[in-house]
Design brief:
mainly beta; two-stranded parallel ribbon; 13-stranded antiparallel beta sheet; Jelly Rolls; Arc Repressor Mutant, subunit A; 17 strands; 301 residues
Amino acid sequence: MELDISNNSLPVYQALASDVRLQILQLISEGSYSVTELADHLGLSKAIVTKHIQKLEQARLIRCDYEDGKQGYRKISHLMVDNIQITFPRQVYYSYSKYEEETILGNYIGFEVHPTCGLVTKTNRIGNFDDPHAFVDAERSNAAMLWFAEGYVEYLIPNHLEPDKKPKLLEISMELASEFPYSNNIWPSDITFSLNGIEVGSWTCPGNFSDTRGFYTPEWWSDDLSQYGLLKHLRVSNLNTSMDGEPISNMRLSDLGLHDHKFIRLRIASKPDAVHKGGITIFGKGFGNYDQDIVTKLYYE
C-alpha cells in the first residue's frame, strides 16, 4: 500500500493510531482469529474488538470472511497489506533550471509485447485483452493503463538541451507495477530501462497491487484487478543511475550523449532472461494513484 500526505490516506493513519489495533494486526499476522478469540487474547469485550476490527476494515488493512467452523460460521480476519510506503512532498535540485516533458502513455513509437497484455482508457478497454494487435489500435493514444507479461514499449522524448547548457540530472517518473492475471500483491518483476539504446539499469517491482482501489482508478474497473502502482523516479546523474535515490548502475549522463541527440529514446522492458519475470503495468492519467503519464525532467546549468 502506498500513502501520501493527504486526506486520501487519512483513514489508514487513523486506523494505525491505536495500540489495540496494532496488537490486532500483530495477532492476525500470525494466523486467523475470530472476534471472540481476539477478545480473549486482548482481555476486551467482543463489542469493543468489533469496533476496532471495523476501523481496520474501513482502512482496507484487513479483510473479514465467514468460515465454516465446528460451531457454525465464524468471522475470520486476514491481513490485506504486506508493507506501507509513505511519499512526502519534495522538490529535487530546485537550484537548477529544467526542461520538462510529459509523454502520453499510449504514444509509444515501438513495442513488442507477449500475453498477458492489454490496454484500457478511462472509460473502456482497447481491442481484446491478451491480443498484441490491440497495441496498434487507433485508440491506443487514449490509453490510461497498459500491461504485458514480457517485452517492451519504447518512447521518443524531445530533448531541449542547448549546446551551451550543462546537464546535471535526468529524471523520468512513472507509476509502475508488475503484471499478473487479475492481481497478485507479491509478484516481483525485474523492470529494465534503456536510454538512447544504452541499458542504464533494472529495478525489481514487488508486486501487482489490488489491496485497495487506486485514487484515480475509474469505477468500471473491477476491484480484483490491478489498481495502482508505485511512483518511481529513474535518475541519471553525473555520478550514477538510481531509482528513488538507490543506485542501480554506474551509468552516467555523459554516457547518454545528450548533446548529440534531439530526442531521448526510452525503453521500458521485461526481459525474457530476467531473474524475476513478472511483467510490467504502467499507469497513466485516469488510473492508479498519480494523475500523470510519463514525466521527464532534465536539470541543467
